Amino acid sequence: MSDVRTPSGRDLPSVRVHPPGPRSAEMGVRLHEVESRNVTFVAEHWPVFWAEAVGANIVDVDGNVFVDLTSAFGVALLGHASPCVQAALRAGATLIHGMGDIHPPAPKLELLERLAAFSPWPDAKVILATGGSEAVEGALKTGALASGRPGVLAFEGAYHGLTAGSLSATPRAHFRAPFEDRLYGGVAFAPFPDPVRDATPDGADALDSVRSALISGAPNGDEIGTIIIEPVQARGGARIPPDGFMAELSKLAVAYDALIIADEIMTGMGRCGAPFASPSLGLEPDLVVVGKALGGGMPISACIAPARIMDAWPASDGEAIHTSTFLGHPLSCTAACAVLDTIQNDDIPSRASKLGETLLGGLRDRLDGVSGVGDVRGLGLLLGIEFVAGDGGPAHGRGARVAEAALSEGLILLPGGDHGHVLELTPPVTLTDEQVEHAVRTIGSVVERTQ
Ligand SMILES: Cc1ncc(COP(=O)(O)O)c(C=O)c1O
After folding, report:
1. Is 159 an annotated catalytic residue?
2. Which atom of ligand 1 lies nearest, measured to the CA of 299?
3. For ligand 1, what atom is nearest to the CA of residue 73?
């Protein structure tokens, strides 16, 4: 590795050895020996082990330089090792751990105040957490307390996490099947309007299903008090609801006295061109959850709601009923405050919107007329290329095959959609024009040769 220079973050890919190179391959064998075998997929062609990450560039242990079009699961919106996060980590190094809900570290208070001010509500209150699923757990519990009804309405294609509560609201059978008996049965699933194949492109069928679930209750008979929805389905394949759908959903929630949780773990913090994606799509949530980009690479997430909702929790009598060891982790809180500063001072939402338009326009032009490309869509820096089979149905696994082939060309990409039929892009806002042009050209040629 000594002959490999740290990339600038703005570099184009440079593949020295076909990935995975010998060092990644050897580490894959070792990993297989010591990690539970369900966690990391290891095969002849996958994965590469990362050695460095800066801006949009990743260097693997074999010295290959990649351009990361995923922001590593949407986290590095400001780029990897963003200067603001690095400075925050240096400044915060004398307080690495605190006693979150007992003797709080000062940075926790600072972040709570910053998040409350960043939120859509003047009197917002916050529950901090470490990852997205954990923030969703907090929101679902808050929804049950505030509505007085435990049942939940979620959407087909949604991804809210894999902890027990969040998994109950995540419909994909692949994740649920082995644990079905342990999952809460009070979740009804409604269709999420499908941009490619819905008979009613305005989402009217989906709204009918929502209405009947709110009237008849969850499969186990529980009354539904909470609706949870991603403004744009992320892992579901960058599915953007049709105009008007979210506004109608919000009206239904009011009519049936249900609370809405907006899961903005992927869409929030500027990625979709606004601090939160909900308002621009007409969704009026009662609670919002954020994570991923919030910590700029440090693990932190939050559930935010106005006082009228959050005060459904009883006051603590000295023994909190919803907390954890790392709640309010000071180093993560310091990093998140720096990220919020950058999002606001550098107008990251507008930059994400402009860059997203350029990338979307480029991909649409390049992929126009290419066989099997059913749709190219995006909102800000959350984009998807959907592949269709000859019968118009999803082209199973083609997104995954394209992502795999793109790795050899120096692009890090991920598949999305319930059938791995979407290529998903959630790049950092630091992508240069040159990196965008290169990515569009490369994706075009990889898509053409990968069926
Ligand atoms: C919309 C959404 N909600 C929740 C989660 C779960 O977050 P985590 O993986 O941090 O638990 C994810 C993760 O991809 C997500 O995209």
Report:
1. yes
2. 10
3. 14
